[in-house]
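Checked the freezer inventory, then went back to the computational side. Two predictions to log before the end of the day. The first one is the construct we discussed on Monday; recording sequence and tokens without edits.
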Amino acid sequence: MSSGRGGRIRVVRPGELNAGELDLWREIRAKSGAPANPFMEPEFTLAVAHVRPSARVAVVRDGGEPAAFFPFEKGRFGRGRAIGLGVSDCQGIVARPELRLDAEELLRACSLSVWEFDNLEAGQELFVRGAADSYPSFVVDVGAGYEAYESGLRERSPKFFRTTAAKERRLGRQAGEVRFVFDERDPAALRQLMAWKSAQYRRTGRRDRFAQDWISTLVRYLAHTGAPGCSGVLSVLYAADRPVAAHFGLRSRTVLSCWFPSYDPEFAKYSPGLVLHLRMAGAAAAAGIGVLDLGRGAAEYKDGLKTGEIPVYEGAAVRPGAGAALHWLGREPSRRAHGFVRERPALAAFAQRTLKRAGRLRGGR
């Protein structure tokens, strides 16, 4: 354990937080007015700590009691990163709004020269000035109920809705009765989803996240998490009792963070992933969930499903010094190159085709 100036900031391993502190974390977050994103709950940080020994939490005290919780991972040479960076879809500090805190003071207390983020939550004013770029995170609002959402979808994207509904009917006729389970507890279904997703990453030329042991272990661990603010939810679409599409995500009482969707390529002509997402929207609305957060990253299915978008930020908070300079040299040229490509659609499309071609070559096809 380490402490900041005057003992105001205490840095601990997540498992060292006591029950009272965890309750305060939840209370501060609930009163913040921000969406109840499960990635911002203590359960997600505790789960990451189970697989990442570098996980830490800075507890900031004000007036004698904890007023903020800042989860992070600490690397070598003072380089820090958001908790679960690479898979966490919402990042930042959980703090009382009246707390006066400076980012440099926080980083110094954490012995960090840099804190990197790639999905910084909107409204995180302490860190947003360190953002190098912003991205839209797409959302589906079902707060008024699924019927209202479907009605709006029919108006916004009539062809998209009709085509998806027709494919679901065709799937039922040609592959067997279609059945959907919102909260599936069969571990075999989770293994199947992870196998599909790994194959999809390789097929599209992307890094296979599930080839990293800490990520696959984290997902299996969260599948058994059942806290009200952060529960693992596995949703599966079946045809004649055969799984054809699945999704694993995290939910709170009001938000479902969509995380790992995939499907059986054998059934691709039926667009089972789209069918699955529409079924998920209906089940989520029935369960009292108001928002499905589809996350950042452009995708055709997100364009069809979304009702809006919110910004998330990528970048780093830095404390002047050698560590900050090393971070800039290591990260900024690559980030700027990615931004250059992203802002040029033709070049981005070429890059996408190149990734897919590389994936086919690695797969021997």
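The second is the one RB wanted added to the comparison set:
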Amino acid sequence: MKDDMNAMLEPGQLVRHPTQAAWGTGQVQSNINGKLTVMFLHEGKVVIDSTRIALVAVFEK
């Protein structure tokens, strides 16, 4: 299996998708076996394959 590029992300953390800026900030809902569920401000719920996409952590409010 490929590396999980989002292994350190936990529910509640804020993230951005590296190529979908229009989605806005997302909040991690779950991170289970390389599948990350994120609720994005302008896109809604999206399931991310952590072996393919490395989300960008957001540290400001």
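For RB: The chain has a mean pLDDT of 92. The radius of gyration is 10 Å. Let me know if you want it refolded.
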